[in-house]
Amino acid sequence: MSLQTTAKLRYVSIPPRKMRLVANMVKGLPIEKALNILNFTPRIAAYHLAKTLKSAAANALSLEGTDQLRPEDLFVKNITVDSAPTAKRIRFQSMGRIYRYRKRFCHLTVVLEEKAEVHRERVQEEAKAKAAPKKAAVKKPKKVKDKKKKTEKKAASRKDKAGKTDTRAKKAATKKQKVI
User: What pTM was estimated for this model as a whole?
Assistant: First the structure.
């Protein structure tokens, strides 16, 4: 069975009808593409939907782990927008009248799922890893460094520091002699 995760956002102060208009745009899309669409949709419902999508993706990654699941493998399986309790409000009008209006709220549920073919590949890789016997790690022999070369270099640098043999001065003197 493939991985399914959900995220819910409750009591959003947007009518369910307006939220469904935006939700229908991203149903069935990969999560990256859905978030790109929502970022450029100029409706307040898009902000709330993007926020819930990110939460669902974070839920999936925390359940499976980032070594097992990549965010690119997730897609929006279903988005459900249900109506929440309606708040009744009144507006005062002329000649002592009162007009009633309803402030509608909604509940948002986002279901993400891993792509089926990616899930099958991952299950097959896990089965192969379990079935294959573990091989003992073969240690490679370390390279033996030539100690003579190191000691010669150290001795040469010590002589230069002590001033006993200054190779630079000798080279400069021979060049002057050749030029004259």
Answer: 0.63
